Amino acid sequence: IRMAPTQHFKTVFWSQKQPEQTLPDFQTGFSVLHQKLGQSRVENEEMISFFKDRIAIEEIYANKLTDQGKINYKSAGFGRDEGAGLFKCFSQLKETSRRLGEQRRTAASTVTSEVLVPLQDFHEEYKRVISNSKLAIDSMLKQFDGLVKDTEKSRSIYHRKCKEADKAEDPSLKITAPKAVTEEYKKAEEKPSSPLPDANGSVTTGLPNIQLGNQVMPQPEFDSLIRRMRQEITLRDYKVPILGTYKNTSTGEDIAIWLQQNLAQCKDSPAMADV
Fold it and tell me: Does residue 140 form part of some domain?
C-alpha cells in the first residue's frame, strides 16, 4: 500500500513555484484564506438575521399571549357568573396566558442582550480587523512584487553589462600581456629597488615583492601562486536566492580551503580555524 505524502503548511497553503517563475505564488493562498474569512463574515450575518427574527417572533408571541390574558368577560357570559368552578377555571387559563406572555417577553429580552448585541459587536470588530489586515497584506505583497521586479531588472542589467564588457575587452591585451609583464620585469631589474626582507629575514633585490599576510613573496612567485589557484580551485555555478545563479564562480570557502591546504602560513592561522 502506497502511503500518502505528508502534507505541510508551506506546500498546501502556498501555491507551488511554477517552472517559469522564480518565486512561489503567494497571492493564491492569501486569496483562499480571505475567501474563507469572507465566508465567516456572511455566516455571522446569517446568525444575526436569525436571532433578530427569533426575537421578533418571541415578542409577537409574548404580546399575543399577554393580550389574551387581558380580555374582558362578556356581560352575557362569565360576566354574570357568580364565581363557580367553570369561572375560576377560565380565569386561571387567562392568567396562564398572561404569565406565558411575560416569560416570552423576558426570553426575547435575554436573547437580545446576551446573544444578539454581543454577536453584532463581534461582527463589526471582525469586519474591521479583516479589512485592515487584508489591506496591509495586499500592500506588502505589492511592495514585494515591486522589489522582485526591480531585482530581476537589476540582474538583467548586470548580466547584460557583463556580456558587453566581455565583448568589449580587447583580445590583443591578452596576447601582449605576457610581453608587457616581461618588459616590466626588465625595467624593474634595471632600476634599483629597496631591499625587502622575506619570511626568513633575507634580503632580495630586483623585481618588486608582494606582501601576502605576514609573508613577502617575489612577484614571479606570486604570479605562479595565482596561476595555480586558477587551475586548481574548482569553478562552479553558485545560486543566490532572488539574485539568481552566478556561473563559473569560486566561493570564498573554496579559496580559503585551497589556501589552507597549499600555504603553510595559512594552516595555523586563527582566521582559518573554522574552515
Answer: yes
